C-alpha cells in the first residue's frame, strides 16, 4: 500500500555532502594534531527566532598556533535590522561592506570549517544562531564538536568555599584575567582572535593540572 503521507526526502546539496564527508571514524587523541576553528558571529540581536547573522568571523588553531593567514570573515545580507545592536558592532544597514546571501555564507563557512572542533565564547548562542540559519535553508544542524571558553575557564579555577565562582564569565572578564588587548572588540573576527588567545591560555592552565587528550578536553564541556 502506498503511503501518501510519507514525508518527501529532501536532497541535500553537494556542499553539505562534502562537509559531511570530512567526518571520519578515526578518533584523534593528541590535542596537537587537532585543528580548532574559533568562531564568533555578529547578529541583529539575541533572539534565536527573529534575529539573524550579520557577520561570521573565524580563525584556525593548530599545534597551539593561531593561523593568521587563514582567517575567515564574511558579511551577510539581511532584511532584518536593529539600530541598537548596530551601535555595538558597527555594521550599518546600508554600509559599503560587500555582503553575500545567507546561503552563500553557510556554504563558504562549512567549506572552511570541515570537521574541526569549534571554539566559541558562550558557544550556545553562536551555534544556535548558525543552526537556525541552516534550518531556514533546509539543511541539518552542524555536526562538529564544540568547546566553550566560558565553561573551560571555570575548570581552571580552584574549588574553594572562599571563592565565589560565577555561572558565566564574559569575554571582557577573560581579557582582563589574561591581559588580552581589546583591540577590535565587538567585531566578529576581533572577538574570535581574543577568544583564540583566551583558549590557548586556558589550555595551558588545564595542562598544568594533568595531561589532556582530546576526549578528556571534550568531557570538560
Q: SSE layout and pairings?
A:
Blueprint: H1 14-20, E1 35-43, E2 53-62, E3 65-75, H2 83-89, H3 102-113, E4 117-120, H4 123-136, E5 146-148, H5 149-155, H6 171-177, H7 188-209, H8 214-218
Parallel strand pairs: 1-4, 4-5
Antiparallel strand pairs: 1-2, 2-3
Helix pairs in contact: 1-3, 5-7
Largest sheet: 5 strands, mixed
- What distance lies between the first and last C-alpha atoms, to the nearest angstrom? 48 Å
Relative strand content: 15-25%
pLDDT < 50 runs, ≥5 residues = none
Q: Give me the side-by-side strand order of the main sheet.
A: 3-2-1-4-5
Morphology call: globular
Overall strand count:
5
**SSE string:** HEEEHHEHEHHHH
In round numbers, the mean pLDDT is 86
What report would you give on this structure?
The protein is α/β, with parallel strands linked by helices and 221 residues long. It has helices at residues 14-20, 83-89, 102-113, 123-136, 149-155, 171-177, 188-209, 214-218, and strands at 35-43, 53-62, 65-75, 117-120, 146-148. The mean pLDDT is 86. It is globular and about 50 Å long. The chain has a five-stranded mixed β-sheet, with helices on both faces. The N and C termini lie far apart (48 Å).
Keywords:
single chain; 221 residues; alpha/beta; five-stranded mixed β-sheet; globular
In short:
This protein has 221 residues and is of the alpha/beta class. Helix content is 37%, strand content 17%.
Amino acid at each position: 500500500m502506498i503511503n501518501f503521507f510519507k514525508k518527501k526526502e529532501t536532497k541535500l546539496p553537494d556542499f553539505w555532502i562534502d562537509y559531511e564527508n570530512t567526518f571520519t571514524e578515526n578518533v584523534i587523541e593528541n590535542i596537537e594534531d587537532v585543528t580548532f576553528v574559533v568562531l564568533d558571529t555578529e547578529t541583529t540581536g539575541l533572539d534565536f527566532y527573529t534575529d539573524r547573522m550579520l557577520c561570521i568571523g573565524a580563525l584556525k588553531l593548530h599545534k597551539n598556533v593561531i593561523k593568521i593567514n587563514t582567517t575567515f570573515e564574511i558579511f551577510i545580507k539581511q532584511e532584518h535590522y536593529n539600530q541598537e545592536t548596530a551601535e555595538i558592532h558597527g555594521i550599518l544597514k546600508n554600509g559599503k561592506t560587500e555582503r553575500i546571501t545567507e546561503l552563500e555564507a553557510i556554504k563558504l563557512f562549512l567549506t572552511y570549517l570541515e570537521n574541526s572542533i569549534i571554539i566559541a565564547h558562550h558557544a550556545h548562542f553562536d551555534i544556535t544562531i548558525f543552526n537556525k540559519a541552516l534550518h531556514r535553508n533546509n539543511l541539518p544542524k552542524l555536526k562538529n564538536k564544540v568547546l566553550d571558553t566560558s565553561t573551560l575557564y571555570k575548570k581552571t579555577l580552584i574549588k574553594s568555599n572562599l571563592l565565589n565562582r560565577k555561572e558565566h564569565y564574559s569575554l571582557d572578564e577573560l581579557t582582563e584575567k589574561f591581559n588580552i588587548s581589546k583591540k577590535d572588540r565587538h567585531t566578529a573576527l576581533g572577538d574570535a582572535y581574543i577568544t583564540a588567545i583566551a583558549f590557548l591560555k586556558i589550555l595551558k592552565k588545564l595542562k598544568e593540572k594533568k595531561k589532556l587528550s582530546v576526549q578528556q578536553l571534550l568531557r570538560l564541556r
